[in-house]
Design a protein that fits this description.
The complex is a heterotrimer of chains A (about 160), B (about 300) and C (about 775). Chain A has two domains: about 80 residues, Roll (Ubiquitin-like (UB roll)), CATH 3.10.20.30; about 70 residues, DNA polymerase, domain 1 (Orthogonal Bundle), CATH 1.10.150.120. The termini of chain A are far apart. By secondary structure, chain A is an alpha+beta fold. Chain A has five helices and five strands; from the N terminus they run E-E-H-E-E-E-H-H-H-H. In chain A, helix 2 packs across helix 5. Chain B has three domains: about 45 residues, 2-Layer Sandwich (Uridine Diphospho-n-acetylenolpyruvylglucosamine Reductase, domain 2), CATH 3.30.43.10; about 120 residues, Uridine Diphospho-n-acetylenolpyruvylglucosamine Reductase, domain 3 (2-Layer Sandwich), CATH 3.30.465.10; about 110 residues, CO dehydrogenase flavoprotein, C-terminal domain (Enolase-like, domain 1, 2-Layer Sandwich), CATH 3.30.390.50. Chain B contains eleven helices and 14 strands. In chain B, helix 9 packs antiparallel against helix 10 and helix 10 runs antiparallel to helix 11. Chain C is an alpha+beta fold and about 775 residues long. In chain C, the strands form eight sheets. Chain C has an eight-stranded mixed sheet, sandwiched between helices. In chain C, strand 22, helix 14 and strand 23 form a beta-alpha-beta unit. In chain C, helix 9 packs parallel to helix 10, helix 10 packs parallel to helix 18 and helix 14 packs parallel to helix 15. Chain C is globular. The C terminus of chain C is likely disordered. Classes of the chains: A alpha+beta (about 160), B alpha+beta (about 300), C alpha+beta (about 775). Chains in contact: A-B, A-C, B-C. The interface between A and C is large, with 55 and 57 residues.
Chain lengths: ~160, ~300, ~775
């Protein structure tokens, strides 16, 4: 069964006619070509498909695309302004918080949602905030360092 | 055997509870309500269930809120908290009222899933999924919560401990919707907490979970009422009245706490599975119950 | 060999070449690729661990609208492949029987994924169940069912060796201890599931773009099993989402995509879901080992005897190297004059194993550093001292012939112990807290025989920038960045002017792949050689204008000049333009490197210096054990790390920390579980738990700079040693905290608690069963 919906992704409205059983991650990746959002476990356990829905982090593999209608969706592609990276992205680059990069988009989006709510976090709070995002490469240390540095930058302290 | 893409279904978007019930009624058992979807969609991807119809509750704004009640019924004479079933775990976590006055629930939500799941998953959904390890159940049981259920002929309110029937089974009919959760207010001589043991420190199901609520007398030494609820150690979340009786009406000391914890460990009936053995779970119920009582006392006496 | 000189780019934590595409979501991984007319493939998987395939009926699936192709194992030539000529035991897809739960038995290609999934349900496979072999013990029973149809026994490979006078070593020992250890099946755990896109062009030539760790290995194996010449296939690597040795060889996914593309004439993409990876793809071998260690009173090791059986699933993969590695690396990082080793790799009906980060040194080191700790305690020697006493030093030749040129290990131990505060921790030691240590050494890429070289081409573009193309693989570890740094350093140009070429078998050259810490060292040396070749060509063109001999021309600071008269020179860019516009000469530097000056390992005796550039690590982990729940909290971890000259220190730290964090899960709770029929039990991430950010300790890396005489700019390979030193450090830390010694991994809370309770019962019963110096006694 198909439905007409309007999805607003990264500020752009898309009129789509999609099957109701499509998850948001499928529509982002397969219909809109926004492959920055990754997919791995398809059960909400890995965090690679994390996007923001109305500024909250969400596992887009567990959201029906039709249910995202009328809400503000931000993906990793919507974070930078042109070639100017978001301070979180800059911090990930600078602190070597990226290795294979497969967890990176989801990790950045989870961190973005977290810093929006908690601009002055402790390292322990950062660890907790990204505990829904699996990374096998880094051991998380440099990711935590990057988020910490980004929080300072976003507060205008660095 | 393996996770797949979602099976096809017809999707309905009612805007009221009444409308939702009518749609479900029409499809007589072949429809499922979807709230946060974090459990339901996964079960469908695993082909554990394949409903022909999904009735979305997400257009029903009236169920996505929490209100501190001044008065009302049934438990509201003394005030309390009324939570719409579609309230997300993230909303609960962000609520100062929940953190301050309904701490066991806040404790539970704080250690549940991940941020990206908490923003989707609802408290109603967590209860209706009725897995033995459902994190919101023990604190709500310990806080003596009741739930409001609506069907085509009206609504009824039942204590939460009459809701769970077995693993993934509740007393809810397929044409009924759990609409609200009501938690009585705790006074200043009452308090509680929720403790959860996991293999990992995050994103894990409880191996064992314990919620405790105590009401002390004015001296804050004698226990007037005690409620202890356990998760993941029986086919449903359970209360342990025998352990509660060790505390109620007594001056609480080390011996009483130890004894109550021991009884809790004996009264649970867990299984051995890939995550832990029966024996370990029983002994952890004892350890966590003791710690939960102690932490509760600290909180009240603080 | 390079001379030590002031470095401009190497040794600096410059930005990764791939950081920006990855952090913006622009990096394309295999699952992100699309091609015109592309179909979607899916695999039907066996519900049995061991069963005869009686028949497969694909007719209904083929008839489903939208399905363009269905294949099974019979569509392949039936030619097995394998790492060694004597271990060719693997088919693209099974023909006569399935060997493990979840093995792909058929594959479909359809217009969309929904249709492909629907088609799987229409394939009818008739199986006849066979008895299963789950453990090494099962495999070695005289009447055990045969697991692999190409082999005559369940023993896949053996490795036995004797170096030095072991008998004398034990006779002269003042102390001898023997212990058994075991380790469970764990998954590899990269986050990107296997994925690939296969196409066939008009001439029938195959193009495979997949998530591969060592495309060269995949390419060779695939061409053998498809029975085609290498020239009939091209393999291109997109971005790879982690591999850790789990993506070396071709998988059924790769073969199925290729075959379906051939059958349908359309591009076919297959992307796995992670539960398929957990159920049916590479894991670490299960281990059962016995170690006997002899020591002198002063703590010096006099002899070691080891037996080890690895169970590695139904195919050999790189298993033969694993079983050798376990024994070979018991020879190092400690000075052991005499070693006897008997290793067996056996087949079984659980998921296939390759290896995982740190290879089987991870398991060997768990045994060695655990038993060393026990011995040290009995001899009354401090755990830091016992490692210091035995640590390998410069110019040490191991009993088996491995030669260590430069060892920073003693300094690694000292720096690590100081940073973690070992001495201070002994004063007022708090209840349930402990610190554990382990050391490890890892080679910078082994010379294993067969194809083992590395090659690099540097193309000089007319505006003066260069493109570095190498055969090593960027799988997240930072290889591309490292080679760009080296090329910039050697050419004297800015790092920003060096670009990374694509990994493509048509242009990228011969390279045995990315494993065993080899890329930095091997491809790094090849990069330097290519840069020098390029400089030589450019110097020959420019020298006459500078009135000098080509040998006198230097490259530095973006200039080309005469060595003894730096004023006489020109901008690098101008020199390049001279070559292009006045000589019409596009320049390509070509370089290769292989450790041809060291011995090939003699597989019969185990003797040989298989690698240069042994890197070293000393790890200390501070942890806390909840004595009522048995739960372990990892607090702080310090690594003293000798990677020679670090090429990119911050990137190196990420490697070191990551390897260590990886093994925390292996040590404490990760385990791939099976029922009695060999069916996987916990193959989703809801049930199989990898460490999250709140499970790992805070990490600190203390760099110990050494200079390796053969390494590029003095560098050694790096990154994998921390995987090898983590298991024992945690096990020893738990012992230090609560006096509980667990030798069978994973060290679960239940195991710790059972031992604590047993001890409590003994104490209550008046027994003095527990005598050694655990935390309780050290209060």
């Amino acid at each position: 069964m198909k439905r007409d919906i309007t999805l607003k992704v990264n500020g752009i409205k898309y009129n789509l006619n999609i099957e109701t059983h499509r998850t948001l991650v499928e529509v982002l990746r397969e219909t809109l070509g926004l492959t920055g959002t990754k997919k791995s476990c398809n059960e909400g356990e890995c965090g690679t498909c994390t996007v923001l829905i109305d500024n909250k982090p969400a596992a887009s593999c567990l959201v029906l695309a039709v249910e995202a209608q009328g809400r503000e969706i931000i993906t990793i592609e919507g974070l930078a302004e042109g070639t100017k990276l978001h301070p979180l992205q800059e911090a990930f680059v600078k602190h070597m918080a990226i290795q294979c990069g497969f967890c990176t988009p989801g990790m950045v989006m989870a961190a973005k949602a977290f810093l929006d709510e908690n601009p002055s976090p402790t390292a322990a709070e950062i660890r907790k905030a990204i505990s829904g995002n699996l990374c096998r490469c880094t051991g998380y240390q440099q990711i935590v360092d990057a988020v910490m540095a980004a929080s300072a930058a976003l507060r205008g302290e660095a | 055997m393996f996770i797949r893409r979602l099976p096809k279904f017809e999707y309905h978007t009612p805007s009221t509870v009444r409308e939702a019930i009518a749609i479900a009624g029409k499809h007589n058992g072949d429809a499922k309500f979807i709230a946060g979807g974090t459990d339901l969609l996964l079960a469908m991807k695993k082909r554990e269930i394949m409903p022909a119809h999904l009735v979305s509750l997400n257009g029903i704004g009236e169920l996505r809120y929490l209100t501190v009640l001044a008065n009302g019924k049934p438990s509201e004479e003394a005030g309390g908290l009324k939570i719409g079933a579609l309230t997300t775990l993230a909303q609960l976590l962000a609520s100062d009222a929940v953190k301050k006055d309904y701490a066991p629930l806040w404790d539970a939500v704080d250690v549940m899933a991940s941020a990206q799941i908490r923003s989707l998953a609802t408290i109603g959904g967590n209860l209706c999924s009725a897995v033995p390890s459902a994190d919101t159940a023990p604190p709500l049981l310990a806080m003596d919560a009741s739930i409001e259920i609506v069907n085509h002929s009206g609504k009824r309110t039942i204590p939460l401990n009459e809701f769970f029937n077995g693993p993934r089974q509740t007393t809810l009919g397929h044409k009924e919707i759990l609409t609200h959760i009501l938690i009585p207010k705790m006074d200043s001589s009452s308090g509680g907490c929720y403790l959860k043991l996991m293999r990992r420190n995050a994103m894990d199901l409880a191996l064992v979970a314990v919620a405790v609520c105590l009401k002390l007398d004015e001296t804050k030494k004698v226990c007037k009422e005690a409620r202890i609820a356990l998760g993941a150690v029986a086919p449903t979340p359970i209360r342990v009245p025998e352990a509660e009786a060790m505390l109620a009406g007594k001056k609480i000391d080390e011996m009483q706490i130890t004894e109550a914890a021991k009884i809790a460990g004996m009264q649970c009936h867990p299984i051995s599975d890939i995550r832990a053995t029966l024996e370990y779970r029983c002994s952890m119920v004892e350890v966590l119950t003791k710690r939960a009582i102690e932490r509760t006392l600290q909180r009240i006496q603080a | 060999m390079s001379m030590k000189k002031e470095l401009k780019v190497v040794g600096k934590s410059v930005e990764r070449t791939d950081a920006r595409p990855k952090v913006t979501g622009k990096a394309r991984y295999a699952a992100d690729l699309v091609a015109p007319g592309m179909l979607y493939g899916k695999l039907l998987r066996s519900p049995f661990a061991h069963a005869k395939i009686v028949s497969i009926d694909t007719s209904k699936a083929k008839a489903l609208p939208g399905v363009l192709g269905v294949i099974t194992g019979r569509d392949f030539p039936g030619v097995p492949f394998g790492t060694r000529p004597d271990t060719r035991d693997t088919l693209p897809m099974p023909i006569t029987k399935v060997h493990h739960f979840g093995e792909g038995v058929a594959a479909v290609a359809a217009v969309d994924e929904d249709t492909a999934e629907e088609a799987l349900d229409l394939i009818k496979v008739e199986y006849e169940e066979l008895p299963v072999v789950l453990t090494a013990e099962d495999a070695l029973k005289p009447d055990a069912p045969l697991v692999n149809e190409f082999m005559k026994s369940n023993i896949c490979y053996t490795s036995d060796f004797l170096f030095g006078d072991v008998e004398k070593g034990f006779k002269e020992a003042d102390y001898v201890r023997e212990e058994t250890f075991s380790s469970q099946r764990v998954t590899v755990g990269f986050v990107e599931p296997h994925a690939c896109l296969a196409e066939v062009d008009n001439s029938g030539r195959i193009l495979l773009q997949g998530s591969k760790q060592s495309p060269y290995i995949t390419w060779r194996h695939m061409c053998r099993a498809l029975d085609i010449p290498l020239s009939d296939m091209r393999i291109v690597n997109p971005f790879v989402g982690g591999a850790f040795s789990g993506k070396h060889d071709p998988m059924d996914v790769d073969f199925a995509a290729v075959k379906l593309a051939q059958v349908t004439g359309r591009p076919v993409k297959i992307v796995l879901n992670y539960d398929e990876v957990l159920a049916a793809y590479r894991q670490r071998n299960a281990m059962n080992a016995t170690i006997r260690l002899g020591l002198k009173k002063d703590g010096r090791i006099s002899a070691l005897y080891a037996e080890n059986i690895l169970e590695g699933g139904p195919i050999s993969g790189i298993g033969p190297f694993n079983i050798y590695y376990f024994g070979a690396f018991l020879n190092i990082p400690y000075k052991i004059p005499a070693i006897e080793y008997h290793g067996k790799l056996v087949y079984g009906n659980r998921a296939p194993c390759g290896t995982v980060r740190g290879q089987e040194i991870v398991l060997a080191q768990f045994c060695l550093d655990s038993i060393l700790h026990m011995a040290g305690e009995d001899l009354g020697i401090d755990p830091v001292d016992i490692r210091r006493i035995n640590a390998v030093t410069d110019n040490w030749t191991c009993a088996n012939g491995i030669k260590c040129d430069v060892s920073g290990l003693p300094e690694c131990i000292d720096k690590m112990a100081a940073k973690i505060g070992w001495k201070e921790s002994r004063v007022n030691k708090s209840v349930g807290r402990g610190i554990g240590f382990s050391c490890a050494s890892h080679p910078s890429g082994p010379r294993l025989g067969g194809h083992f070289g590395s090659a690099v081409v540097i193309k000089l573009m007319e505006e003066g920038k260069v493109i570095v193309t190498h055969g090593g693989t960027e799988i997240g570890q930072g290889a591309n960045t490292v080679f760009c740094q080296m090329a910039a350093e050697e050419l004297g140009i800015p790092y920003e002017d060096v670009m990374q070429g694509a990994s493509d078998s048509d242009t990228t050259i011969f390279d045995s792949g990315m494993f065993g810490d080899r890329c930095t060292y091997w491809d790094g040396n090849a990069t330097i050689a290519a840069a020098r070749d390029l400089k030589k060509q450019l110097a020959e063109i420019i020298a006459p204008e500078l009135k000098a001999m080509p040998e006198e021309i230097e490259f530095a600071d973006y200039r080309v000049f005469v060595r003894d008269n730096p004023e006489r020179g020109m901008d690098f860019q101008r020199a390049v333009r001279r070559a292009y516009y006045e000589k019409g000469a596009p320049l390509y530097g070509r370089g290769y490197w292989a450790a041809t000056d060291i011995d090939l390992v003699d597989w019969k005796t185990g003797k040989g210096n298989l690698a240069h550039g042994l890197d070293f690590i000393a790890t200390g982990i501070e942890l806390e054990v909840d004595r009522q729940t048995g739960k372990v909290s990892l607090l702080r971890c310090v690594h003293g790390d000798d990677a020679g000259q670090p090429i990119n220190p911050a990137m190196l730290e990420g490697q070191v920390n990551g390897g260590s964090a990886h093994m925390t899960g292996h040590c404490l709770w990760e385990e791939s579980l099976y029922d009695e029929k060999g069916r996987a039990l916990n193959y989703t991430w809801r049930d199989y738990k990898q460490p999250t950010a709140v499970d790992v300790p805070e990490y600190f890396v203390e760099h110990v700079h050494t200079y390796d005489p053969y390494g590029p700019f003095g560098a050694k390979g790096a990154g994998e040693a921390s995987s090898c030193s983590t298991l024992a450090a945690i096990a020893n830390g738990i012992y230090d905290a609560v006096g509980v010694r667990i030798k069978d991994l994973p060290i679960t809370p239940e195991k710790i608690l059972a031992t604590l309770n047993e001890r409590k019962r003994d104490e209550q019963g008046g027994s003095t069963g527990f005598a050694s110096g655990g935390a309780d006694e050290a209060q």
